[in-house]
Amino acid sequence: MSVLHELDELLCGDDEEYERLDLFHEADELIGQLRVADVPALLALWQARSLCWQQRYTQASRSIGGDVLRALLAGLLQVKEAPHGVFELMNRLPPVADTSALSDALLDYAEQAWHAQGPARHRQIQISCWSCGLSGRLLKRLGFSSWKEAGL
């Protein structure tokens, strides 16, 4: 059985069993074994599975490899309807932003979400951008000099 298939079965499992047996540890180990070549199939699963599956994935992704993370985020940004996981997975990126196309795409996504989703999500957007070093760049894009001025 492939790592991705095993991970999918685990994340689709019964809620009570998943929590009672702390299966997120096993899910984290499996996520750590994924390769960039697995990302297209992972993206297909992401779109086909429930929000609960996506939440379990993001919560258990502590060991995700950097290349897999960047490929997954780049793929999620291409999905038309805003999927769960982009802001949650941004927290797994290194704390210093680079000048890559992915960083620019994440900034575009965050800026659009800021305007579209309203004040209830602003804190999560700010924290996700801060955790990966994009906070200052987002602040400039939004035209604010501080997060306090932005209402946070």
Notable traits:
10 helices; mainly alpha; 152 residues; elongated
Summarize the SSE layout with pairings:
Layout: H1 3-11, H2 15-20, H3 24-33, H4 39-48, H5 51-59, H6 66-78, H7 86-90, H8 101-117, H9 119-131, H10 135-142
Protein model, in words:
With 152 residues, the chain is an all-alpha fold. 66% of the residues lie in helices and 0% in strands. It has ten helices and no strands. Helix 4 crosses helix 6 and helix 6 crosses helix 8. The mean pLDDT is 93.
Structural class, by secondary structure, is mainly alpha
Mean pLDDT equals 93
Stretches with pLDDT under 50, minimum 5 residues: none
Task: Using the CA coordinates, give the radius of gyration.
Answer: 16 Å
Order of helices and strands: HHHHHHHHHH
Q: Total number of β-strand segments?
A: 0
| Biggest sheet layout | none
Beta-sheet strand percentage?
under 5%
Give the overall shape, derived from the CA principal axes. elongated
Helicity level: 55-70%
Helix count equals 10
Distance between the termini: 47 Å
Give a quick precis of the structure.
The chain has 152 residues and is mostly helical. The protein contains 10 helices and no strands. Helix 1 packs antiparallel against helix 3, helix 6 packs across helix 8 and helix 8 runs antiparallel to helix 9.
